[in-house]
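Hey, I'm writing a tutorial for new members on how sequence and structure tokens pair up, and I'd like a real worked example in the thread rather than a made-up one. If someone can provide the structure for the chain below, I'll link this post from the tutorial.
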Amino acid sequence: MLGEMKKSKADYHLTDAVFGAGMFFEQVEAHVECLKAVAPADHIPKFQCPILFINGSEDHRDSEDKWLALCTKKDVSELKVYEGGDHFFMHDSRFVDDLLTRMDAYSKKL
């Protein structure tokens, strides 16, 4: 996807940050097993701070309402869905500025 669009400096930094951290396609099974072992639903209620959930509209979206319902700070937690974004929407220049602005604003709520 990135090869087909104009890439900004932010696109390159996001790609480095995500793929440099070990999110590789050949590790998909290991990532799924890790999520099963960690059981995010068991931990979300323990957070006493706002939570920002982000997703692309074209990604698998089976748990969004469940995650929001588990938040202890429901009034300030949020789900942002990027219309037209897939699983790798963070690498898409259409969303980078809004994503970084939104994440910055949430970090200031903590």
